Amino acid sequence: MKAVIMAGGFGTRIQPLTSSIPKPMIPLFNRPIMLHIVELLKKHDITDLVMLLYHQPFVIKNFFRDGADFGVKITYVTPLQDMGTAGAVKAAEKYLDERFLVISGDLLTDFNLTKVIDFHVDSRAKATITLTSVKDPLQFGVVITDKEKRITQFLEKPGWGEVISDTINTGIYVLEPEILASIPDGENFDFSQDLFPAMLKNREALFGYPAKGYWRDIGNTDSYREAYHDIFKGRINLKIDEPKQDFLGKDLRIGADVTLEYPTGLEGTVVIGDNTQILGDVRIKDSVIGRNCTIEAGVKLNRCVLWDNSYVKKGARITDSVVCSNVRVGQGAVLEEGVIVADETSIGDEAVIKSDVKIWPRKMIEAGATVTANLIWGEKWKKTLFEGAMIKGLSNVELTPEFVAKLGCAYGTTLPKGSYVLGGRDCNLSSRMLKRCFVGGILSAGVNVRDMKMTPLPILRYKLKTFGEVGGFYLRQALDDPAALEIVFLDGDGLDFSSGMAKNVERIYYKENFRRAHHSEPGAIIEINNVVEFYREGFLRAIDKEALKKAAWTVVVDFNFAPASQILPLILNELGCNVIALNAYVDEGRGSKKALDKHAGLKQLSKIVASLGAQAGFWLDPTAEALVLLDESGRIFDGVELLSLVTALFLKTGQKGVIAVPVHAPSTIEQMANQKRCQVTRTKSSDRAMLEVASSSEVILAGTTDGRFAFPRFQASFDGMFAIAKLVELGAASAIPFSSALAEVPASVFLQTSVPCAWEMKGGIMRKMSEDSLDKEATFIDGIKVHFGDEWVLVLPDQHTPYAHIVAEAKDQKAAQRLLSEYQKKVEGWKRELE
After folding, report:
1. Domain with 329 in it
2. Quick one: a GO biological-process term for this protein (predicted)?
3. 297 and 406 share a domain?
4. What is the value of pTM for the model shown?
5. Residues 441 and 416 in one domain
């Protein structure tokens, strides 16, 4: 007799276990599930097999080949498309000229198939469906039979009100070959939904045989884990390749070339695959470990499944979880009950994976991270949610509506009940979608939201500096990736969140210790108007209107399709400027795409400025915080050069006070300031550190090396719109064109690079840098900055990415490059020492 094994499914319900292998090849006690089926068939003298493949057929063929190694003969049939269960069997019709049995390749059962076949023959059935009783029949098809076991009724996935039996279809059939004539060629046709109901309607010989024994459909990850539990409890006997060891009555199955230093820590049924190393004192109970694995000392495994080539570092604890192939579990990591970790994933030291979380293949969980939700897309789960004052992720992939709503609830919980926060967004459609979800979470915590809707971020910051709100938030598309979204968190003064504020939100998010408002006390949404007019009035008070009107400059501004295009041209016109506005309309789909093509945009802008004879051109980023300046010839000033130019122009006005720049800004800033009897204060590189300093009454200018400026007389926040007007004012007051202003800046060469640096190495690198700098003049504001007379070099570990930045400044290119290369080699050498 022949058997047809159905082995073509995609295994969608059991993902991520099927991310790299077909479902029938998922290991069950270190052997593919389908091998257990093949051996069950062989046990009942069914050795002529037809395997119906579809998804990843080569994996199954490479394992079973012609079947000779397993004592069977195998014929493979691979339909060209998904034909349904009966349609797939129809594709193998030429091999089925006698009575045959159909069985799924992903079942776990010990049914007596001989009895099923004998019943079929005795009943003279055309088709016999093997039946069994289950506790929860709702997810299966219920089958009703009469006294002779002839089927009288089918109930496909009934509700409880429809359930009149607990007997279900197991997917094991005995069929006569003539039944194939009832299956149409080339059509998607199913046994349970099409063929059997038609046979029932035609009153054909369709019988059901209630089999006794164990049966489980391994259809999802929970069922897969439960199958192991059943085997551990002895509910089904399974062939295990690893030989049984006699050791103090323990049920140990240990493969070849296994290293097991302390078997006393093993309890219950423990299977260890070939060439696996169990190092030191471990605690392992009711677990299956694959081949070529390494388990270090102090590890605790309870009811776990580890596939091949996995590495569990010392002190890790894994409970009732599945760890797939080529996975690294870091030192002290914790995997709670129900966790699934797919192939080639790395879990960092001390990371915690919460209950029932599924992690798809090739992910990286950072050391110390807590994973609370399934990690499907993206590459990593970070240790912290925040990157400084913002949370960034792929829109609708990492930042999903449910994640953002939960985040909003965590944020709202940190705020006083009944308080007000200010919210806004850019023009991107994803920002609008996710902002609504975020606001919903805030409202659920009993906090009110004043909604500015679509607005530039500087205006939202300006409003926060007045009164009435305890904080704010802003959603915007990331400039470096159009698919990513950023949620910026602000305190009640319009400053970026402090690290303490961010940790408070994270703590509530991870613990899910949310405050839920009473049904009569949720927060309210209040639309807020007239803020732009309020901003405009303050803007005009802080500018020398008469000087601008007298100069009557022509300026070209590329607005990048952002909301600032609806505000700034009107203000500049009021100040007497002739504004040529490019991309000056809101486009919900093009803002950040345009910013990504910044080089092409600046090239076009340069040509327009020069051809129109304008005094200046400006490229304003979609956030309205950063800018690029073009002089009257179309030459581009950005980065360090722009900071130096703005500082030089500002010092020419004769204002006295403090200029704030980050620690890595060029020393030429001090040289210029000293000549004008002004001071320079160096700050950490974070935005909050800069803006906190800018809030001081002595500070007259704060500038970064990426084109952002704050003029505290107006507001101590980065504001590209005001910076454009202020630059026009400074240029007009200097009475020299921008092309000549840079001549007053002392000459120097400023270079920087970044070196990959794993998180766990950062502390060691900075220790080595500190030791190397003991006999040198060094400062420690942010990173370590070493001075060599007029030259200096800075090594600064990045706060949010696995990199270390190296910055150098010297009088000429050769000296700067020598300094940069020297310290780059040092950092690379220190990395090798720390490995």
Report:
1. 240-381
2. carbohydrate metabolic process
3. no
4. 0.69
5. yes
